[in-house]
Target: ER lumen protein-retaining receptor
Amino acid sequence: MNVFRLAGDMTHLLSVIFLLLKIRTMKSCAGISLKTQELYVVVFLARYLDLFTRYYSLYNTVMKLVFIGTSVCIVWYMRFHKVVKQTYSKDQDTFRHYVLIPPCFLLALMVHRTFTVMEVLWTFSLYLEAVAILPQLILLQRTKNIDNLTGHYVFLLGAYRALYLLNWIYRFFMETHRIRWIPWLSGLVQTALYADFFYYYIKSWKNNEKLKLPA
Model:
């Protein structure tokens, strides 16, 4: 644990709180990609299966349960809640997210640290998480009115991964001195995908304007 990982975890948690706040208080999921949320369920289930095989700490266990639980909860709201599901932008959320899963899994089978079930699943979750935001970013490009909570949610998601990159760099210099190419490169890809959004988010905040992405 270090300050960058803690900040990353808290930023990630805050992003989920923003999203649940939007869904619970506004009874709306407009502008939120169900495809991205379903990919996150796959990511967290694959990454945190070690809950049943290994104990690290109370903090680690609680955070894993929170992210699994909240991701499933969000998907349930968007698919089954009688009010919230009516606000889902189904016609605009058309990215075929399922095509991302097989190549990420095949890549994990070929490029991993050690060939064990848990390690391959952990690697798969990193690869899939790196591209899971694509449906959400494409949906935002098609959305004319991006509300503040949605904008904050996506910004915090991107910031969380950037902070985790700093965590790995910190650990390289201060702790292990081991190069971890898989989390480094997947984190770089994920952060790069947010670059355009970061630019327009900061620009809109600086100029006190409504957030809008170019089509």
DSSP finds eight helices and no strands in the chain. Helices lie at 3-26, 34-47, 58-80, 101-110, 117-131, 134-142, 148-176, 181-206.
